[in-house]
């Protein structure tokens, strides 16, 4: 007999329920493969997000058996528990429908942390010569690969109970810009990162670092912001 996989999926908005689907268990199938098969073959009303399917865009992030992760990179054999997979939307953001969340507050906080790059040169200027071996460049590079998938935001317990907290992704971005010598307003970014709801609200639990799909350390970035802000305070700048 064909081996079956039980998939419990959250259906509805904030008020909803889990609905269980049974589909064939296949070799090397990912969680995203499972959701796609259910939507295409069983229930076309199921709402979810995806785009690239190869671990580049991050739009397929969901909560899988209680943990936030990219579903396109999550193989069923690595996450299934007793033949069951439970799927729900990412935490800490309003639920729109089924596995889809409203990410407006996430991106608003990214902006509030000064996340927009402001260059100091025009198209007529020569490109900035940045030493890739410099300390500042290495610190910026350590945080620059974030693609705003919001997995760290969903994993953060502080975000859950403090809605004013900017969150790990926004502060990770701030750390990149504070160390980017091409950015026009690093002091302005640091000031925003030091404000209420900023880096000093972090409890250094490390959930963001643990769950980041690309291995970044927002915890380290936030620690860098705390250290830099203390230096600025003691130096009177």
Automatic annotation (TrEMBL):
PROSITE patterns: 2FE2S_FER_1, 2FE2S_FER_2. It holds the Pfam family Fer4_17. This is Succinate dehydrogenase iron-sulfur subunit. Pathway: Carbohydrate metabolism; tricarboxylic acid cycle; fumarate from succinate (bacterial route): step 1/1. Belongs to the succinate dehydrogenase/fumarate reductase iron-sulfur protein family. Its cofactor is [4Fe-4S] cluster; [3Fe-4S] cluster; [2Fe-2S] cluster. Gene3D superfamilies: 3.10.20.30, Alpha-helical ferredoxin (1.10.1060.10). Coiled coil: none annotated. GO terms for molecular function: 2 iron, 2 sulfur cluster binding; 4 iron, 4 sulfur cluster binding; electron transfer activity; metal ion binding; succinate dehydrogenase (quinone) activity. It comes from the Bacteria. CDD domains: fer2. Keywords: 4Fe-4S, Iron, Iron-sulfur, Metal-binding, Oxidoreductase. Its EC number is 1.3.5.1. One of its GO terms (biological process) is respiratory electron transport chain. Residues 5-91 form the 2Fe-2S ferredoxin-type domain. It is an enzyme of class 1 (oxidoreductase).
């Amino acid at each position: 007999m064909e081996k079956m996989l039980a998939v419990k999926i959250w259906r509805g908005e904030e008020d909803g329920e889990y609905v269980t689907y049974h589909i064939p268990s296949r070799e090397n199938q990912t969680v995203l493969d499972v959701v796609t098969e259910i939507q295409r073959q069983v229930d076309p009303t199921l709402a979810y997000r995806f785009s690239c399917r190869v671990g580049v865009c991050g739009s397929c992030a969901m909560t899988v058996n209680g943990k936030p992760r990219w579903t396109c990179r999550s193989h069923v054999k690595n996450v299934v528990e007793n033949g069951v997979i439970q799927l729900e939307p990412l935490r800490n953001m309003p639920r729109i429908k089924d596995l889809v969340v409203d990410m407006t507050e996430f991106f608003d906080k990214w902006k509030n942390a000064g996340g927009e790059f402001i260059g100091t040169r025009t198209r007529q200027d020569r490109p900035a010569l940045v030493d890739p071996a410099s300390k500042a460049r290495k610190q910026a590079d350590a945080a620059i690969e974030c693609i705003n998938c919001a997995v760290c935001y969903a994993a953060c317990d502080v975000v859950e109970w403090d809605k004013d907290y900017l969150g790990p992704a926004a502060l990770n971005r701030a750390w990149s810009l504070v160390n980017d010598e091409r950015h026009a307003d690093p002091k302005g970014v640091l000031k925003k990162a030091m404000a209420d709801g900023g880096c000093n609200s972090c409890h250094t639990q490390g959930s963001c670092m643990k769950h980041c799909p690309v291995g970044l350390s927002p915890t380290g970035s936030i620690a860098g912001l705390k250290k830099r802000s203390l230096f600025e305070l003691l130096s009177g700048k």
